[in-house]
Specification:
Length: 237
């Protein structure tokens, strides 16, 4: 297991986020605080509709909080403009979703090369790293196939390789195995976990699956707009 260091890599400070609809205000985060340490894997476990995606999108700079700050590494993101947030997302953050969102017209290898080339790497370097990542995810021999020629589990392993292609500070995953059958889900999750542990990445992973969540360093949930620790070893009260 990669050693966790005492260094915070992601911090949410008094983050508030509400949605305004015609006749009501829906408060999802209310002065929420959270710290993810370097090398730490944390599961976000909460019922559907509780706000997991909102939290991941806010922490991952896809949505702006109404107030409060998201600090990535040493960078306070509250004052960043849209271009700076986009650059930070592209270079320092990785995302995996329930559905793979791979580019259909590109091969698996090219899908993993794209984010690296957007960052300015040569195609030679990007291709080598992409192949290494696909090999690590045990999908190397399928690297010249397009997503439509891959199984669901294989597509998701390519999506994971793509998400870590730029060696992000933080990997965010939103139900990454939610669309897979139980045995494929377990296999894909194992590959994700091994990759995160081996590379010393930090990860925040939303999942409904308590067995997968228990394998992480710590579990949190959303309660009254706050991010609170969750002990999955205790039976529900
Ligand atoms: P989860 O990921 O836990 O299922 P979400 O973060 O997707 O939860 O949504 C939390 C709540 O916020 C839900 O009730 C959802 O309907 C609502 N919501 C999410 N996005 C928006 C939006 N853009 N506008 C209004 N309400 C939203």
């Amino acid at each position: 297991m990669a050693a966790m260091s005492g260094e915070p890599i992601l911090q949410l400070k008094n983050v508030c986020r509400s949605y305004h609809e015609a006749d009501r205000e829906l408060t999802i985060l209310k002065d929420a605080n959270f710290t993810l340490m370097r090398g730490e894997m944390v599961a976000l476990v909460a019922p559907s509709g509780a706000g997991k995606s909102t939290l991941l999108h806010t922490a991952g700079l896809l949505e702006k909080p109404d107030s409060g700050d998201v600090i990535l590494g040493k960078t306070s993101c509250a004052q960043l403009d849209d271009d700076e947030r986009t650059a930070m997302r592209r270079n320092d953050l990785g995302f995996v979703y329930q559905f793979h969102h791979l580019l259909p017209e590109f091969t698996a290898l090219e899908n993993v090369m794209v984010p690296q080339m957007l960052r300015g790497l040569s195609s030679k370097v990007a291709s080598q790293r992409a192949q290494n990542l696909l090999d690590y995810m045990r999908i190397g021999p399928r690297s010249s196939h397009r997503p439509s020629e891959l199984s669901g589990g294989e597509q998701q392993r390519v999506a994971i390789a793509r998400a870590v292609a730029n060696a992000p500070l933080v990997l965010f995953a939103d139900e990454p195995t939610g669309n897979l059958d139980p045995s494929t889900s377990s296999y894909v999750f194992q590959a994700l976990e091994a990759l995160v542990r081996q590379s010393g990445l930090s990860a925040l992973i939303a999942t409904h699956n308590h067995d997968l969540a228990r394998r992480m360093d710590r579990c949190v949930t959303l309660k009254d707009g706050k991010i609170v620790d969750l002990d999955l070893r205790k039976p529900a009260a």
